[in-house]
Write a structure and sequence with these properties.
Oligomer: single chain
Shape: elongated
Number of strands: 2
Order of helices and strands: HHHHHHHHHHEEHHH
Largest sheet: 2 strands, antiparallel
Strand order of the largest sheet: 1-2
Radius of gyration: 19 Å
Strand content: under 5%
């Protein structure tokens, strides 16, 4: 998605404050006292070309943790950042959405659900992993979506993840390990226990030792529950 936001003014006092590199928690407290800064802060995150946008991202994420009521009205603007041209901004937006969704009583996430979870199939392992890392709490908050989310997670074995312009089996192995961790968070809530157990069992001999160990521990913990 092309960035259509207006260019941030270089004399913006909020931009100047960010350039001072304030402590995240301290600056988040300032934003709580001045919530009218939030739209401009998101604009900076979208348009600024310097490193201050990363600080803005961290402040908004901290706000999502400590005062989600202030961040939730800007849910759509934050969600739009998952299409940012800068990968770090995309990953930050994914993490912030993961924090906000369980607090989203107005179901704003419905508008972004498909696009968000389509990123599980993104060629970038890091992008897919960021989504998977946020998925457990989302499933617990939105149990109606569990069957579809589980289906998407089970399909990662069919995906191709890339590293340095080459398909990377190792990246897929890492993603599969993340999926095991995710399933562990909501296994008791799923109706697809057999499919999940079969998926995990297929990873017991994974060449990545960490993944194989996760598979063994998962099966030991959950087989009796199936």
């Amino acid at each position: 998605m092309k960035n259509t936001a207006p260019e941030v003014r270089q004399d913006d006092p909020l931009l100047s404050r960010l350039r001072e590199k304030p402590d995240i928690q301290t600056f988040a407290a300032e934003v709580i006292d001045h919530p009218q800064w939030i739209p401009r802060l998101i604009e900076i995150m979208r348009t600024d070309r310097s490193s201050v946008k990363y600080l803005g991202d961290k402040v908004i994420r901290q706000l999502a943790v400590v005062r989600p009521d202030l961040a939730l009205p800007f849910f759509d603007e934050i969600a739009a950042l998952i299409d940012h041209s800068n990968s770090f901004m995309r990953w930050g937006a994914i993490q912030t959405l993961g924090i906000l969704v369980p607090q989203d009583q107005e179901n704003r996430f419905d508008r972004h659900y498909g696009h968000f979870f389509d990123l599980i199939d993104d060629p970038s392992m890091i992008t897919a992993g960021n989504v998977i890392g946020q998925t457990g709490p989302i499933v617990l908050a939105r149990p109606q979506d569990e069957p579809d989310i589980t289906r998407r997670l089970l399909q990662v074995r069919d995906n191709t993840y890339w590293y340095k312009d080459q398909p990377s089996p190792e990246c897929k192995n890492i993603v599969c390990g993340m999926v095991i961790d995710c399933f562990d968070q909501f296994f008791d809530r799923t109706s697809r226990k057999k499919e999940i157990l079969a998926f995990v069992a297929s990873l017991k001999g994974n060449p990545r030792k960490e993944v194989a160990k996760k598979a063994e521990l998962f099966l030991k913990k959950h087989t009796m529950k199936s």
